[in-house]
Amino acid sequence: MTFIDIPQFIKPNKLDENYFYTLFTCLFCCFLAPFIVFWFVKELYLLAIIEAFLLIFLCCNLRRISINKSEILPRSVVLISIGCQLLLLTYYAGSSASLWSYPLLATYFFILPIRHANYVAIALVLPMSYILTFSSDSIFVLRYVSSIIATVIIANLIITINKNLQKELLRQSISDPLTHCYNRRHLDTTLEQTTHLYQRTQDAVSILLIDIDHFKQINDQLGHLVGDDILRQMVKTIQEHRRASDMLFRYGGEEFILLLPEANHKHAMLIAEKTRKFISDIQLPTKHQGLTVSIGVSEFTPSMSADDWIKQADVALYKAKNSGRNKVCSIEMN
To answer: For 96, which DSSP code?
Structure first.
């Protein structure tokens, strides 16, 4: 059973898309400049002026991107305007210009969200098909439309498969393969983000460091396969009873950390005690007793780093173990 969901704060890396968008815009500006001269030579002054304004706008947009400022207009609007230039070129230069629709469509699907890309593709193809009726026979128009539809369908399939693969790779990179809760790598990232978030919101946040009592003996006496099954059962139990905002991580071996947003010390102690009791309902094979855990509780304070936070929970955990195990303990802060 899988418990991992992709956290909301994990965002896809947009570096490649930004680079491709910038490169595409630069190439289009180089492509557009000689056409401005061409339209002036053909005495199509209005068209030349429109494209000159577009060129200036694109250059300004590139300048803002280069200094890490927000773009003047959304990318979908910019790409639609480029599509309009292609429509004008097809109208004046003939049907051969429509062949540029294919690389432009590929750009739409690479840069824009898939839904927006489909909308912009429709906004390009419908008027293009109409314009082609003036310069081409019906067979060419039919071939153009059918090939464009096929291109859009294939692009949707490729983008969907690629995004699903990316999501699965991300899921695997942040999850523990045995228990399917979050792994140590994701714990480090999440705690750093949580400490930075605390500086802005000052919302209480705590962690529980959970350790299975005598787990080495369980492995030695019952075998590692049984030990693995016990780990999975415990994780399943915690996941079923945790709050929706809580996050469970495997810290190492039989140790787990439960992150409790919006939980102060008192609230975290109550959650820890409930968690301990839920886990005690797990029956050990061939033993007439439940699984027991020791839990260390630590509430984050402004003077702490992420490492200090875990160290305090670790000290509380050892306090619980030295007090006879199967207990919940914390460290009193002055």
So the answer is: G
Q: Under a CB-based contact definition with an 8 Å cutoff, are residues 57 and 29 in contact?
A: no
| Sign (positive or negative) of CA dihedral 304, 305, 311, 317 | positive
Count of CB atoms situated within 10 Å of the CB of 88: 18
Is CATH 3.30.70.270 the classification given to domain 184-330?
A: yes
Enumerate the domain spans of the chain: 15-173, 184-330
**What pTM did the predictor assign?**
0.71
Tokens linked to 112: 């824009």
Catalytic residue among 17, 71, 254, 332: 254
Distance CA 333, CA 300 (A): 11
Strands 328-330, 293-299: pairing kind: parallel
Least Cα distance to 5 among 263, 258, 247, 261 occurs for 247
332 as an active site residue: the answer is no
The pLDDT tens digits for 60-106 are 888 887 777 677 777 788 888 888 888 988 888 888 889 989 999 99
